[in-house]
Amino acid sequence: MDDVVVVGGGAAGLNAALVLGRARRSVVVVDSGEPRNAPAEGVHGFLSRDGVPPGELLGVGRDEVARYGGRFVSGRVARVERVEPAREADPEFRVELDGGEVLRSRRVVVATGLRDELPDVPGLREGWGRYVLHCPYCHGFEVADGPLGVLGTHERSPHQALLVREWSSDLVYFAVRPLADGEREALAARGVRVVDGPVSAVSADGVETAAEGLVARRAVFVAPEFRPRDGVLDALGCERDDAGLVRVDAWGATSVPGVYAAGNVVDPMAQVVSSAAAGAKAAVGLHAGLVFGLK
């Protein structure tokens, strides 16, 4: 039986495994090999790693985890079960993979991230991470001062547009969803042009609209629905907060003793660097629990 199984091999999961390996704990990382940011050209805002391709960052991380004895298993986790009877301070978990392989551990870290659910507009998925973007802090600098757009399909789209305006004075807001009272005025006050009505497609050339035809844009920002991949946590009975996200304490501990979670699975707004930090913190909390008999 291993000390820890980490479910998910992104920034949060790998950093948790790295810290635990350095604490001389036996760690297994289960990863499906489908990182959320794979389409992006580079990771940004990560000190000393700014601009590195996502796959390269993960490759370096895997090498570092392996250096401290961490092991990797490719696949998806079908379920995690707490083995009974077990003392609350010393639980045991059975981690079953889709292929039938079973791992056993004293603790579990879930870092399975989220999926971005995009509006049903042709071209969005094809351009995701290239000319279709969602985070100005992650990608705004690379398209700064160019003709940009914000696809107004979500209640937080006007807020997104006011942020994106900091990167370009040539910004068009495509009001697919009607603007609420005061939103149009707020956009106008910042010099954001509004195009009302349906959008039929988005491409590298721009946005195809009913009102004006093709509006040429270098890049278009969109607000996806964030869908945490938290089925494993839900099946374990982890409590949720008022926003519907799995609740964790300051150290990443869920309400289920022995189960920790970090990164986008519990914090949809976390960037790569903050997900990595959350993984490290969860590892420290988990390790202290093993030492002192806490959850």
Automatic annotation (TrEMBL):
InterPro entries: FAD/NAD-bd_sf, FAD/NAD-binding_dom, Ferredoxin-NADP_redctase_2
Domain FAD/NAD(P)-binding residues, every copy: 3-276
UniProt entry keywords in alphabetical sequence: Flavoprotein, Oxidoreductase
Pfam families, alphabetized: Pyr_redox_2
Superkingdom, taxonomy of origin: Bacteria
Reactions catalysed according to its record: [thioredoxin]-dithiol + NADP(+) = [thioredoxin]-disulfide + NADPH + H(+)
Cited Gene3D superfamilies: FAD/NAD(P)-binding domain
Protein name: NAD(P)/FAD-dependent oxidoreductase
Source organism of this protein record: Saccharothrix hoggarensis
